[in-house]
Amino acid sequence: MKGITINNPENLIECKTILNWINEESSVLDLGCGDGELLSLLIKKKRVQAQGIEINQQAIQKCIIKGLNVFQEDIDSGLSDYPEKSLDYVILNQTFQQVKKPAFVLEEALRVSSKTIVGFPNFLHLSSRLKMCFGGKVPVTKSLPYKWFDTPNLHFFSIADFKEYCKIKGINIEETVVISKNKKVRVFPNIFGEIGLFLLSK
Amino acid sequence: MHNIKTKQFTFALPPNELMLELGKKLGPITIAYETYGKLNKEKTNAILVTHALSGDAHASGNHEEDDIAGWWDKLIGPGKFIDTNKYFVICSNILGGCKGSTGPASINPNTKKEYATDFPIISIGDIVNVQKELVNNLNIDKLLSVIGGSMGGMQVLQWMVAYPEKIKSAIPVATTMKHTPQQIAFNEVGRQAIISDPNWKKGRYYGSKIPAKGLALARMIGHITYMSDDSMKIKFGRRFKLNKENYKFGAEFEVEGYLHYRGDSFVKRFDPNSYLYITKAMDYFNIVNGKRLGSIFKGLKAKVLVISFKSDWLYPSQQSQKIVKACKLARVKTTYCDISSSYGHDAFLLEVKEEGQIIKHFLNSVLNND
To answer: Is B260 annotated as catalytic?
Structure first.
């Protein structure tokens, strides 16, 4: 699964936002940690106790090279071993839309952590809307770069969908940052936002 | 490398015999061991490699007198995954073994005859306690890592619970915290094959015919469990040794020939009584022992790398995942890899490329992380 590539400046705001939300020396579990770029950054800047979960063998090798602790496990079942509130943060960045049972995984993440960070591509970004309406095809955009027949994304939802879901489930949204072209979006985020980042608790 | 020599270390001389876990005393104890590479000045680069059921101290390189490569030679050596230009690697033959260490074939100082079945029942705990004596004798206070697969992995787990402050990291491979009834059952069939061989004579066969048929049969059963359905299909298929069937009870299929060969060659190098004692030690091993999973590795500061192989049905991945769970609950710094391989349990000896890379990078991060 895809992690954040730090040398890709488009992702910088995402990283900065997550760094801001995480306290020094806290415990962090990154679900679908990819190459471990984000975890390495968190260790460097915030001296966190980091643990990753990743399914891809090559990605795990890269994590081990970085000295990270990582479990080769399926995100959908990786949290059941953790006791309630045993971690400060669980991160589901760009992996939430890829899990088989997002409702279950989010519930589990909130159960085991004090705070959960969720980041996902906004399916109803303006460019997607235009491509759908006028192109008549499933949109392929910067934040949703995959063709319909070859995508790791299993669930398609908007920032508004996610907010509504949190409300129904009684999940507290402590912070929201919506990003487009590496800038924060403040006006009509559900239309102009490419990526939604949420700091949640329950 | 042709300059490898097996060395010996003797301790627990009477009256200072070693107290075994089951309460009996044993001494003197001799341990055969080999070392590769150089111990650095700070003594921070020592790695202990622990062998499986049929292994010995010869893990890497070749001896002068023969050309038999060490059992983990693909992994350990100069420039290899466990690089002996960088690390000081120790491997010893276990207590109860028959390749230079004290075991049932050794002379009992009280009777001046082989111990045979007078040899006390030993445990994985005893095996590790003896390794600890050897490590102390080499003036090493803390090991950079302990690495082993299968029963070698049990020894790694034992180090993690018995001497957590003596290891900086641990790599248990294709192993378990305790045997399941199925694993005990396979071992028992192997033991019964030896015991029911008329040449066994209650273990007192030294100096006469050994229970070769029984030991060979035990080894044949073992080899079936070390392979996978797929690896057998790939290796042998349904091919015949002589390209045709002749409908006789003999080794007609290639797979039969292979098992016979494995059984017969094992007899030349292994003591049947050692097989009995060691498999018992494996079956008795249980670091869970009624404890809560989260308390087993509590307080362990060492970094842990758990490795399993997807086609291993003798020590299936779920058993490694249980180790990972215990580490998780104890907040031990842990990495877990479930490697794709068709080799079955043998993968830990054969699927060296993937396994080696992971071990290499992990050791490197442990070495550089002070």
So the answer is: no
